[in-house]
Amino acid sequence: MAAIELDGVTKRYEDVTAVSDLSLTVDDGEVFGFLGPNGAGKSTTINILLDFVRATEGTVRVLGHDAHRESVAVRARTGVLPEGFDVYDRLTGRAHVEFAMDSKGVEGDPDAVLRRVGIADAADRKAGGYSKGMRQRLALGMALVGDPDLLILDEPSSGLDPAGAKEMREIVLQEAERGTTVFFSSHVLEQVEAVCDRVGIMREGELVAEDTIEGLRDAVGTESTLRVTTAGDAIPDTDALTELDGVSSVSTDGETLLVSCDGDAKTAVIGELESQGVEVTDFETREASLEDLFLAYTGRGDGTADEPEVRA
Ligand SMILES: Nc1ncnc2c1ncn2[C@@H]1O[C@H](COP(=O)(O)OP(=O)(O)OP(=O)(O)O)[C@@H](O)[C@H]1O
Fold this sequence. Notes:
Structural class: alpha/beta
Distance between the termini: 27 Å
Bound molecules: adenosine-5'-triphosphate
């Protein structure tokens, strides 16, 4: 069974289409990273899953239930860490977890939950005095109450220091071991890279990529960009360069040549230019990374990468 099934989901506000024709399936037990820059439509999608926002068009099923008509059944089996979670200043950490247990109608040891998220020492302190990271841990603890089948985490690492972000990833992995489906959003690829089976990348309301991290890596491949600065009158024969083994494309920009090629084709490229009598004054290479790919998809690259320059 799929834990989440979105089919042709669109959410329009008066003058903004927050989500546009989104179809996405997350399998049971999968850890799915939902990525995209600010305003891409991640929170809107999450709110649609939880029926806090109603889709303008499309169908949404969560844990086998219709997200709108059977939202109570969905929420009973779902743990949520909402974006911008606010604590009740005057309640202790333990009281927060007790509150979450009451609302879910489950029994349990609040201190065990607080231990799990690393704030057991602060159980008796008022949450108003908690740091941002402690609040985030508390929110995660509340989401874990009742051993949900689906965990929805909206930007779970925000406010966490590196150690906290690592613990968050460990908890996600432990939950996944238990068979929980985890759907979490982030605008930082590296936070989801370590834990996700698959990622979806949103941009301006549309899903622009959906793949495994492996698949994304394959799309990046071992390609790198070789930037060569030339001088003198000899005009490089770009066709001859393109024919070299491992070279996939060559473009020129004034005296600069941009060559996309395998890492090991660089020497051949420089050699070919020299044999053409082209003077090479400088060259540098840049390895493509997953982050480059993410930036290419989300259009936050160097300003020229509107569309990914990869064969996904
Ligand atoms: N209630 C609303 N009324 C009007 N426009 C809205 C509303 N909620 C969201 N939007 C718009 O929909 C778009 C998507 O917003 P959304 O909050 O889903 O993005 P996001 O990917 O979660 O961003 P962030 O990373 O900043 O949280 C934005 O342009 C936002 O301004």
